[in-house]
Design goal:
By secondary structure, the protein is an alpha+beta fold. 40% of the residues lie in helices and 12% in strands.
């Protein structure tokens, strides 16, 4: 569990005290199930009941191939727009996304996830100190020094502890951008979340291509550093 992790992230006190903060219980009560639906009508991807209010397709909307820079087919799949926005497609709607990709020959890419690495302190998995240090080194190679990484992690600590442990999700494989958006939307007010949503997308734009796999791989993207 998160309070028994070995190794040092520099936020151990924050992790330990998270569930004792009043906002922890507020966050827990505000986490909502994702009931979004994505379909393909032959011309565009259509989103309905999209969960994130700042998104261009909230609560419903369509995306054409001309708007899309690439698609990442992990779960949940990511539709990366040329504007820099990232939209999510759940596993149950992946067939619609694949039909869209194949119809318009949309580029498929596999990327390493900056948010996956940032959120590793909040998964139900223990990492060695050498793994943690390697993660800091990888993030620094992308322009995120230790102070910046720690600041991001502290900002989302209460929300992520509530999201993964308070809700009994107990994700041990990896968390990502989708998860932190769900957690923060439950944790902060509407205007603050809109700002966070934009900042989170900017950070995800740093995700480098996974050079170890074919660009068109449909397997799940590495949720963190190599």
């Amino acid at each position: 569990m998160f309070w028994k992790k070995s190794g040092g992230y520099g936020i151990e006190r924050d992790l330990t005290l998270a569930m004792f903060r009043s906002s922890y219980y507020t966050t827990l009560s505000q986490v909502r199930p994702d009931t979004s639906k994505v379909t393909f009508d032959g011309q565009a991807l259509r989103f309905s009941d999209y969960p994130f209010r700042p998104a261009s397709v909230f609560p419903s909307g369509a995306v054409t191939a001309g708007q899309v820079a690439e698609v990442n087919l992990e779960s949940p799949s990511q539709v990366r727009l040329k504007s820099g926005e990232i939209l999510f497609v759940g596993h149950s709607d992946k067939s619609a996304l694949l039909s869209f990709v194949n119809r318009f020959d949309v580029p498929r890419r596999r990327r390493l996830a900056v948010w996956g690495a940032l959120l590793n302190p909040f998964v139900d998995t223990t990492f060695t100190q050498s793994e943690i240090d390697g993660e800091f080194h990888w993030l620094e190679s992308l322009g995120l020094d230790r102070e910046t990484v720690t600041r991001w992690r502290r900002e989302v600590t209460i929300a992520m502890v509530a999201y993964n442990f308070g809700t009994m999700l107990w994700d041990w494989a990896g968390l990502g951008l989708y998860d932190v958006l769900r957690a923060q939307q439950a944790h902060v007010g509407r205007s603050e979340f809109a700002r966070f949503h934009a900042r989170a997308m900017t950070l995800a734009a740093l995700d480098p291509l996974d050079q170890s796999s074919p660009a068109t791989s449909e397997t799940k993207s590495t949720n963190g550093f190599p």
